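Predict the 3D structure for this chain.
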Amino acid sequence: MALPLRDDLAPRRFPWVTLALFAINVVVFLFVQPSAFQNPPEDYTAAETTRAVQATEFALRWGAVSCELHAGEPLAERPQQCDDGLGDPLPANKSVYLALLTCMFLHGSTAHLAGNMLFLWVFGNNVEDRLGPVRYLALYLLGGVAATLGYAAVNAHAAVPLIGASGAIAAVMGAYLVLFPRGRILTAIATAAFQVVYVPAAVVLVLFFVTQFLTPDNEVAWEAHVAGMVAGFLAALVLARLPSVRRRAELDRVDIALRRGAAF
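Done. Predicted structure below.
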């Protein structure tokens, strides 16, 4: 297992958008989502069962559901595109396409949130610095939508809610691979001996991409990770050609050369 901790590139400007996204995700998880997400029920008392039902209904209302996107109507309408076996309660009057946005700010557990926020902070601050806050926010949101649609494309009949920021963060990671391929990521590696070493960003990110196809856990939407990373990579190829982005890239190259004592 390899866990990125930070990179060796100091952003030139404070990453306000990354910090805001970080804060919004944490606030939503702690104060908007039902308590069962933070503290899962451990028994089957009436109170605990009620908490579990509230969490399920919340995820179905605000999470993105593949078959709903294909049908254009919520599960409560029992669309033919959705797998059978749907229980109750099913949220009525759901905005199916709004869920493409809201699902990006929900998380299934504390560990889910913590992992996503770590990846966001490691890779997001420098991508924001290079692209600028507006383009970075657009990349994040549109990349997250692309990730969800990618999952829906190969799971057309799935009736489970998709929640989490990992698709949007994967788009940021794809952009990082284009913009900072020579960066280095301080990474915790669990092998026979636990190590914390700097690893080239390209190695970390390509390894992350490849291992998504080997994910054994059916509860992990690896298709969304792949689609998000591809979307971010392609978007960054275009954005990197913009004059303002190219100027920032040149300034970064000068700074790196100065820090490393190189001649230029």
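The longest helix spans residues 110-131.
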